[in-house]
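Run log, item B.
One chain of 199 residues. Sequence copied directly from the ordering sheet:
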Amino acid sequence: MTSILQEYIPHQAIPYVLELLKHDHLTVKIKNERKTRHGDYRKLPNNKHQITVNSNLNTYRFLITLIHEIAHFEAYQKFGRFIKPHGKEWKQTFQHLMLPVLNPSVFPEDLLPLLAKHFKNPKASSDTDVKLALALKQYDETNDKTYIFEVPLGCHFKLYNGRVFKKGVKRRTRYEGVEVASGKLYLFNPNAEVNLITN
């Protein structure tokens, strides 16, 4: 497991994470990119527990995602299966598990204030914390994606599933996008990744 983790998380966090994963019935699998999630946790029919994390995440997002999923496992173990997936038990567990790695030896200085703020009340996905998500994306490998907020008003953009939208105005926190095929209006987080259609 050490050799796998060396490839995916900051080196300074490896001993701590290995301790967290010391459970006979818990396995971690690295998956190819899934567009709808960074990772997941589930109890298997054989009473073992499995965590999966996407292989394409940068080291900081991978670490946050892995600990997010370990928190699901720990909360399940401690509080039972009837708690809400991202309820107070999970939030407290996630906060507790993240605290030892929220320091400059693990995360870059520019991320720490954003992480500290996020973990006062962690959300189901760090993607909904726009400032943190954008800061984390600076550490991604370069790609041809564009953020919604960068798309000029009235221009067309395409989602990973091929649906095409025309960008509208910004509401309080999100941007309007009208689906070209259906005419339906949708709202997008500013940091949603899209492909700009230039022709």
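Observations after the first pass:
- The first helix runs from residue 2 to 8.
- Helices lie at 2-8, 14-20, 59-79, 88-98, 112-118, 130-137.
Flagged for discussion on Thursday.
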